[in-house]
Amino acid sequence: MRFSGFLSSAVMVILFVGCFMAVPEVVTAKHGGGVTRHYKFSIRMKNITRLCRSKSIVTVNGKFPGPRVVAREGDRLVVKVVNHVPNNISIHWHGIRQLRSGWADGPAYITQCPIQTGQSYVYNFTITGQRGTLFWHAHFSWMRASVYGPLIILPRRNESYPFIKPYKEVPILFGEWFNADPEAVINQSLQTGAGPNVSDAYTLNGLPGPLYNCSGKDTYKLKVKPGKTYLLRLINAALNDELFFSIANHSVTVVEADASYVKPFVTDTLVIAPGQTTNVLLKTKSPAPDAAFYMLARPYFTGMGTFDNTTVAGILEYENPKNPENAPLFKPSLPAINATNVVANFSNMFKSLATNKFPINVPQKVDKRFFFTIGLGTNPCPKNQTCQGPNGTKFAASMNNISFALPTTALLQSYFFSKNGVFTADFPDFPLHPFNYTGTPPNNTHVINGTTKVEVLPFNASVEVIMQDTSILGAESHPLHLHGYNFYVVGQGFGNFNPKNDPSKFNLVDPVERNTVGVPSGGWVAIRFQADNPGVWLMHCHFDVHLSWGLRMAWIVLDGKLPNQKLPPPPSDLPKC
Fold first, then answer.
1. pLDDT tens by residue, 81-124
2. Is it the case that residue 30 has pLDDT exceeding 90?
3. Membrane-spanning residues where (predicted)?
């Protein structure tokens, strides 16, 4: 299927005037083909009412979801974040490569210490070789429950999309709403060892929709004209849940994943994991039907724990319906909650566009190979305490059975200034004790706890990582996110990875390029990337509950020999611990 057409610069700018408009922006002088765009994020408490309950939440500029940040490929973003709330915070620019700007990546205690109350920090980075839909979010504890927003990267001026010109572009952000304070929820879980209380609702652009009690007025409505093409920029900012999404009686064409163009394909149902973004083209019906259509999202889940088994609804409405009072409201059918086959089939549809204009560069040879198990585990209950995890233990999570502990000083600072004692460079390349990963789990489910171990990579090494789900405490999908890089998803399958047979099936021609990939429930995924970005880069599960339990690790990518292959010193306002 081929698409042509372009979206002019003037039209692009006009399309982005609308809901949750970006914070005031100052554009300064041009530089190297782009411009510098200045934004200010004021972290403030704001009273918000959902599900007939009002509470004070942490926001950026008093907006929920947060404000839209818009830039073009090649632009420089300068965002001053000022913290006016009691909580510590940091902001991550999810999916931005941060080439030689790792100090601006944002994860607390990895690339920076958090921004404390009354302090500020300026995130300064250039968008290089990227265009599409990403998002920004808090990267401290569970603060991103309410601190998130879209990050839209338009093509360079006079550049076109590789698909038909959309009539309008619409960001759609999925989130989770907790009636309780999310910080209290995770703190209680970490104290008792039990799974955290689940969210009370999912949200679509901050609104739960009419399928929840006392929420009819809080419904997102997308009003469309007949016979037009809309570009929907889908972002899963939910804390702990992958989601199925469908629009009744409408199919969409997928054209982009994680800000990388893909070969277009048509689908009625999408799957989107936390941390993932998907751009789709929606062609509206003509003439306008005398009906409205639910846009529904609900979770995909295969684990053993509890989860928020509810459905968020928005409504697609055509302009000027003939009989609005009696128009039917159609509802799509969504797959079963545990429909792993649907998820696998959907994932296999993604292929990079891989054209001369948008080429890919998959490492054909591999310098460094790694095999990481991904899954849950336990910690023993401390003496004189009753724990509520499995068999009286505490829930934990790990990679290669290492439950990663955050240091008290940021890893990047420690590495850059050669301070000892914060981390050790001995993260295991392979499981220390191999077992039948997707078969009967071992009797001992304890993880190695309280360590800050990293992997060290030479500059420009080509890397392959096999990520293997385990059946310990139940097989489930894990969305793994790598900071500072995109990677190519060269293979995936069910059961245990077979190093003799499976690599021959790898796609090294047009694999999808992503920053977040779902490790299949009861299966494995293979990724490759080129370690061309010096610094310290977090890799973690994007379920925040698993992140809190330790399902994370970090890569140190060494400097290269040339000046443009080295990480510059930190900015003077880098927060201190």
1. 999 999 999 999 999 999 999 999 999 999 999 999 999 999 99
2. no
3. none
Beta bridge partners of 69: 151
The type of residue at 95 is G
Residue 502 in tokens: 């499976």
Q: What dihedral do alpha carbons 334, 337, 340, 343 form, nearest 10°?
A: 40
Give dist(CA 211, CA 317) in Å, integer. 17
Q: What torsion do the CA atoms of 425, 528, 92, 77 make, to the nearest 10 degrees?
A: 120
- Rounded (5°) CA angle 317-280-234: 80
Indicate the pLDDT class of residue 7, thresholds 50, 70 and 90: very low
Return the minimum-mean-pLDDT range out of 2-6, 238-242, 246-250: 2-6
Q: Which residues contact 182 (CB under 8 A, 6 or more apart)?
A: 142, 143, 145, 146, 239
Residue the block writes with tokens 């959907």: 346
Per-residue confidence band for 371, with pLDDT thresholds at 50, 70 and 90 = very high
For residue 472, what are the contacts with CB-CB under 8 A and spacing of at least 6?
A: 375, 376, 377, 441, 442, 445
Give me the domains of the chain, ranges plus CATH numbers.
29-159 (2.60.40.420), 163-351 (2.60.40.420), 368-557 (2.60.40.420)
CB 153 within 8 A of CB 134: yes
What is the rounded distance in angstroms from the CA atom of residue 147 to the CA atom of residue 160? Answer: 32
Q: What is the largest CA-CA distance in the chain?
A: 72
Q: How far apart are CA 348 and CA 365, in angstroms?
A: 23
Coil, helix or strand at residue 164: coil
Q: How far apart are CA 484 and CA 494, in angstroms?
A: 28
CB 508 within 8 A of CB 554: no
**Which tokens go with 8?**
């002019």
Distance CA 183, CA 50 (A): 18
pLDDT band, very low/low/confident/very high, at 32 (cuts 50, 70, 90): low
pLDDT bracket for residue 17 (50, 70, 90): very low
Statement: residue 240 has pLDDT above 90: yes
Phi, psi (degrees; rounded to nearest 5) at 547:
-60, -45
Tokens of 4: 């042509």
Task: Read off the pLDDT of residues 161-176 as tens digits, 9 standing for 90 and up.
Answer: 999 999 999 999 999 9
Contact 212, 310 (CB under 8 A): yes
In the sheet where 478-482 sits, what is the strand order?
A: 454-457, 552-557, 535-541, 478-482, 516-519
Check pLDDT > 60 for residue 22: no
Only one residue has tokens 């973003």, namely: 77
Q: Which two tokens stand for residue 86?
A: 């009691």
| Tokens describing residue 293 | 């259509």
CA 5 to CA 231: how far, in whole Å? 13
